[in-house]
Amino acid sequence: MWLCVQVFALRDAGDLAENATAYVSLEPCNHYGRTPPCTEALIKAKVKEVVVGMTDPNPIVASKGIEKLRNAGIDVRVGVEEALCLRLNEAYIHRMLTGKAFATLRTTLSMNGIVINQIGSGADQPGGYYSQLAKEYDGVIISSDMAKATTLPVSQEAGAKQPLYIIIVQGEGSELHIPFLDEESASNAIVLADSPVTVEPSGVSVSVLDQMNLESILRLLADRGLCSVLVDFRDAGGVLVPLLSKFQEDKLVQKVVVELSPVWVVSPGPSDLAFGGSQSFALKNVEHKEPCKLEPDS
User: Fold this and answer.
1) CMP/dCMP-type deaminase domain spans which residues (predicted)?
2) Cβ atoms of 93 and 25 closer than 8 Å
């Protein structure tokens, strides 16, 4: 979710902000949202100069913030490190231009290409890749089977705000019990179902969708203010498969994170990633990190 942190930074700086230079990756907003306009805060703080990485694609802003600052006598430089800022703000930009949340697909594969419900040892600990992902994304989409059977994804990073849990329910009975949620944390989860369902603990928001597909889900989440979601895929025969059937052709997934685990797994059922569309496609900007070590089964 997007908050105007400039307002809080200026409050913390106090009188030190006067005649200072402010560096921002995104054009300061000029409208009221969860916080007052950043432009008003910058003008009130009497900053001398504002260095802006990129203009805001939000039509409500769209250079109006820059114009207001200049009209107030503040020097403004625009487009500094723009390529880097475009990457930093990619989820926000995607939501503004498409009306959908930015989606990243994450899964773990064995050495023989089997999808496994396991992540590497240390991956969910401070500094681990999964802990960092949980901190970076506004929400995590998981299946109802994962919600019922495993600990929900959390970030162990210092000061991390935990993601919203988005639990997909299809063809379930009339009840769903989520053992790792309590009444206090229930508000940090939503259930998206194709038919009415009663959820325990109470307090979990339930939405019954007319159309259960990934595009509808991503639009719903964007309307709720989420910019980015992690689709945590752990079961090749589970409820998430239909949602991902044409994710590449429909341009619904922007990134893919695959953990390759040093194990060889025999699977009696569906086990691979045979979805995404009817044509093969190349992945761009592929990055490599050292794999995590998996603890052997006891």
Assistant:
1) 1-77
2) no
Tell me the C-alpha distance between 229 and 252, whole Å.
11
Q: How many CB atoms neighbour CB 274 within 10 A?
A: 9
Domain ranges of the chain: 5-88, 92-260
pTM, 2 dp: 0.87
| CATH superfamily of this structure's domain 5-88 | Cytidine Deaminase, domain 2 (3.40.140.10)
Instruction: Please state which of the four CATH numbers 1.10.10.10, 3.90.1150.10, 2.170.150.40, 3.40.430.10 is assigned to the domain occupying 92-260.
Output: 3.40.430.10
Query: Phi-psi region for residue 38, left (φ > 0), alpha (ψ -120 to 50) or beta?
Result: alpha
pLDDT band at 185 (very low <50, low <70, confident <90, very high): confident
Helix or strand holding residue 265 (H, E): none
Q: What is the mean pLDDT of residues 260-279?
A: 77
| Sheet of strand 189-193: strand arrangement | 205-208, 189-193, 164-169, 139-143, 228-232, 102-109, 255-260
What pLDDT, on the 0 to 100 scale, is given for residue 3?
A: 53
C-alpha–C-alpha distance, residues 76 and 82, integer Å: 14
